[in-house]
Hints:
Radius of gyration of chain B: 14 Å
Strand content of chain A: over 45%
Oligomer: heterodimer
Radius of gyration of chain A: 13 Å
Largest interface: A-B, 24 and 23 residues
Strand content of chain B: over 45%
Amino acid sequence: NAGVMQNPRHLVRRRGQEARLRCSPMKGHSHVYWYRQLPEEGLKFMVYLQKENIIDESGMPKERFSAEFPKEGPSILRIQQVVRGDSAAYFCASRITGSSYEQYFGPGTRLTVT
Amino acid sequence: GENVEQHPSTLSVQEGDSAVIKCTYSDSASNYFPWYKQELGKGPQLIIDIRSNVGEKKDQRIAVTLNKTAKHFSLHITETQPEDSAVYFCAAKGPGGTSYGKLTFGQGTILTVHP
């Protein structure tokens, strides 16, 4: 059973470009969470999505960041006009529907803005 | 919102010794407390978790204890091995309906096990 998949694993963007990060949850999981990890820091919640719905985006910067989880295909975290401060590791986690609380993380996408 | 504090930030032990990492949380309504292990260049791996209706849980060499009154929980690793060396994160989840399952993480503990 494949785990959470993220791609690309490494992404280099110049300031002002767009970054698109993809996350495919575990089979049977319909809840996706995105977290950001700055160097030598813990993980910070960004957004929680279910299929075709954003449930909680309280951790997402108001500008330049957006997320989606379409009916078909992976969840996408999009960062427009990247700045150096966006350089970080971005992780997604998935959770199965129901009373289970366990979140399983992907390997992350390491974004470097030059 | 929820705030999680984790100590120590670094921990160095000899192989075979025990290691204890402690976390405190601020929201008394939090009801789920997982622990993750993160190796260099990898994503966090869930190693053990506990719900608020349980005081202790054990899985082979690792155990977690929860003190709801004091709002703290701890990870215990016995008979440590070099492959236990990693960064460990604690986390807390608020009650459903208000937190939607999002986790609030501690700052992490770098555990080094010396052979």
